[in-house]
Amino acid sequence: xxxxxxxxxxxxxxxxxxxxxxxxxxxxxxxxxxxxxxxxxxxxxxxxxxxxxxxxxxxxxxxxxxxxxxxxx
Length: 73
Hints:
Blueprint: E1 22-26, E2 40-44, E3 50-53, H1 56-72
Antiparallel strand pairs: 1-2, 2-3
């Protein structure tokens, strides 16, 4: 098994490739509701690219940019 392969539970397709994995760290004072405040750090597992964010829009922008860059390779 390649390191990017994650075994799926029995009867379910994998659908969760490692190249689309992110680690999300929220600050202790970050909100837990949809209105935030969302703040912390996010890292793309495969590339190691990371950034800090202060709101949900910045978090989503990073994820979209990263996934588009991966698709362009």
